[in-house]
Write a structure and sequence with these properties.
The complex is a heterodimer of chains A (157) and B (156). Helices cover 27% and strands 49% of the residues of chain A. With 157 residues, chain A is an alpha+beta fold. Chain A has a domain of 105 residues: 2-Layer Sandwich (Alpha-D-Glucose-1,6-Bisphosphate, Chain A, domain 4). A seven-stranded antiparallel β-sheet of chain A has the order 1-7-6-5-4-3-2. In chain A, helix 1 crosses helix 2 and helix 2 crosses helix 4. Chain B has one domain: 2-Layer Sandwich (Alpha-D-Glucose-1,6-Bisphosphate, Chain A, domain 4), CATH 3.30.530. In chain B, strands 1, 2, 3, 4, 5, 6, 7 and 8 form an eight-stranded antiparallel β-sheet that branches. Classes of the chains: A alpha+beta (157), B alpha+beta (156). At the A-B interface, strand 4, strand 5, strand 6 and strand 7 of A face strand 1, strand 5, strand 6, strand 7 and strand 8 of B.
Chain lengths: 157, 156
């Protein structure tokens, strides 16, 4: 029997970089990979980014502690479709996540970039339907917060 | 340059339907069925209805009052569990302007000899074009049409 849980959350960040630079960290494939895909404890199997309305992004990454945590080799995947792109201002996208081929959530997100004091105020709003065996809202929000820490480190480097 | 804004909203609609989950699911999955209850008001001009009901498949319809604004619905199916769950992401356009992007989850639960349907929509409305109040009203009307459709078709 299926089981579905819905949740929404908002994360707001301020970065010292201008909106153009923050936006470019989402639109440029090499930049996006550094903060969105690469990470300690993960082996990246693939990442593609086709950043245009109707285009998509896919990533596949092996969790190095898969056996320890899930009792089996574990590959996570993220498939994204970009619904709307307003350069330097707004991105709206829909994405699904899966573990070993089993989809465990579908999400909708908007990211807004607003000039603020020489830098950028970035507002991320996430909505999701979490399925049986999924991560759930707390882990998801925590995951995005960790990614935005990495985005901040990337922009400051 | 237009002033950019977003309004995020979520609403939930529950219905009890006098049809099994299998029959309700078929009203969504079969294009000929769905075209009978899904779409704008009867007096609107409408384009051909398209439905490719599978994960990764698309659905579209457009229409509007004669000579008036064209409303276009474009959906992508993200998750389908037969007789249990359907998840779509969809965009609405008024003429050439995208006014919203939404995630819609339909859950079907057996209840007695019928079905409890739970529809949850999470959406972002763009640049002040729409609000969740009118979207929720429109969705309630569609689900009224679905209930009527289910009472009309011969039980399978």
């Amino acid at each position: 029997m299926t089981n579905t849980q819905h949740a929404s959350f908002v994360i707001e960040r301020r970065y010292g970089a201008a909106p153009q630079r923050v936006f470019a960290a989402w639109s440029d494939a090499a930049a996006k990979r550094t903060w969105f895909v690469e990470g300690e404890g993960w082996e990246i199997q693939s990442h593609t980014l086709d950043f245009r309305e109707g285009g998509g992004e896919t990533s596949r990454f092996r969790f190095l502690k898969g056996e320890e945590t899930f009792g089996e080799e574990t590959v996570f995947g993220n498939d994204t479709i970009f619904n709307e792109i307003v350069p330097n201002e707004r991105i709206v996208f829909t994405y699904s996540m899966h573990r070993n081929g089993v989809r465990f959530s579908v999400s909708l997100a908007s990211v807004e970039f607003k000039a603020a004091g020489g830098g950028t105020r970035m507002i991320f709003t996430g909505h999701a339907a979490f399925f049986e065996g999924g991560d759930g809202p707390l882990m998801r929000e925590g995951g995005w917060r960790a990614l935005f820490d990495k985005l901040g480190a990337y922009l400051a480097a | 340059m237009p002033q950019r804004s977003t309004t995020h909203a979520t609403f939930v609609i529950e219905r009890t339907l006098a049809a099994t989950p299998e029959r309700v699911f078929a009203a969504y999955a079969n294009p000929a069925n769905k075209a009978r209850w899904f779409g704008g008001p009867e007096e609107w001009d409408k384009s051909d209805y398209q439905l490719d009901f599978r994960p990764g498949g698309r659905e579209s319809i457009s229409g509007g009052p004669p000579g008036g604004t064209v409303h276009r619905y474009d959906a992508l199916y993200w998750d389908i569990v037969v007789n249990e769950r359907i998840v779509v992401g969809y965009e609405m356009h008024l003429d050439a302007t995208r006014i919203s992007v939404s995630l819609g989850t339909t859950e079907l639960l057996p209840q007695g000899s019928g079905t409890r349907l739970i529809y949850t929509e999470q959406g972002v409305f763009l640049d002040g074009y729409d609000d969740a109040g009118s979207r929720e009203r429109g969705t309630r009307e569609l689900l009224d049409n679905l209930a009527t459709f289910l009472t009309r078709v011969v039980p399978s």
